[in-house]
Write a structure and sequence with these properties.
By secondary structure, the chain is α/β, with parallel strands linked by helices. It contains 13 helices and seven strands. Strand 6, helix 7 (156-173) and strand 7 form a beta-alpha-beta unit. Helix 3 runs parallel beside helix 4 and helix 11 crosses helix 13 (282-291).
């Protein structure tokens, strides 16, 4: 984590409670000193940048990435916590691909612009999301996207729009979608809305919150129930898995030897996410699979 604070106001996010809203950052030189230490002392090969706004200060980001290149660390890196779509410019993508980026994740939240503007308060132009997806494909950089459904005042029609948007990006630009159910975390505007309108179906506990994010849901409105959302998310994930299998079969056709190894690994129980990662890192992971080691 090289920086803290998020100036944006998404209603479901609790990051401001412990990280604050004001953006603070370590200097590029300080970050590089840490990377230098990790590479030399622990021989690390990959870094997860968990910042909420890694590219908010583009000059600092450029300095970090340029220095990684100059020092020839031979490491890869990614942004699993997500970045803003508008930050994925041609310059950033070109520089990132040349200097070790494995993939980017962007927070989209909703594929319905009305929901983005009036419910989520994301302050995001969805045309920028489409542009980022297109640019990542052009630069041959893997891209994933986060989507959240089940907000108060969101209709099933809004939710279907988000699903269609996500699958359109997946089919056209291979932007891999992750779907979550809106969860009313303590201290968020989402929590306040649910309390005020009586939308909570259960008491908020650590266990209920953890389960709600992936399945079940804790919010019931006149437009949807937790059961309906749970069923919908299960269908979505199955559809994503089917599309992933199609991509895997295409890979088998273009790379028969490697593709057969990956497909057999999938048939023998590997999860959709694992197969996705194998496709992404196939040059590294195939050697592990061939040797019979855990990847």
């Amino acid at each position: 984590i090289t920086s803290r604070g998020c100036p944006y106001g998404c209603i479901f996010c609790s990051i401001h409670l412990h990280m604050g809203r004001k953006f603070r950052k370590h200097s590029a030189e300080y970050v590089i000193a840490h990377i230098d230490y990790l590479v030399k002392k622990y021989d690390i090969h990959h870094i997860h940048f968990e910042d909420d706004n890694l590219i908010l200060d583009k000059r600092r980001f450029d300095t970090i990435i340029d220095t990684i290149s100059k020092r020839d660390y031979r490491i890869s890196w990614d942004t699993p916590n997500g970045v803003r779509a508008e930050s994925l410019t041609p310059d950033v993508l070109s520089k990132s691909r040349k200097n070790g980026c494995s993939y980017f994740v962007m927070g989209v939240e909703s594929g319905d612009q009305w929901v983005v503007n009036n419910i989520v308060n994301k302050k995001l132009d969805l045309s920028k999301v489409r542009q980022a997806a297109r640019l990542c494909k052009e630069h041959k950089l893997d891209l994933e996207a986060f989507y959240v459904i089940g907000f108060p005042d969101e209709t099933m029609e809004n939710i279907k729009t988000t699903i269609s948007f996500a699958f359109d990006l997946f089919k056209k630009y291979e932007t891999y979608p992750h779907f979550f159910i809106a969860t009313p975390l303590f201290g968020t505007k989402l929590y306040d809305i649910c309390i005020k309108k009586g939308y909570l179906t259960k008491d908020i506990t650590p266990h209920n919150l953890a389960v709600s994010v992936q399945r079940g849901g804790l919010i019931k409105t006149p437009d949807f129930t937790p059961e309906a959302l749970n069923e919908l998310v299960n269908k979505i994930r199955l559809k994503v898995k089917i599309l992933l299998i199609i991509n895997l079969l295409k890979f088998c056709f273009t790379h028969p030897a490697d593709g057969i190894k990956l497909f057999s690994y999938f048939i023998n129980g590997a999860s959709g996410t694992k197969v996705r990662n194998l496709l992404r890192y196939r040059n590294k992971t195939l050697s592990y699979l061939t040797a019979g080691k855990k990847s």
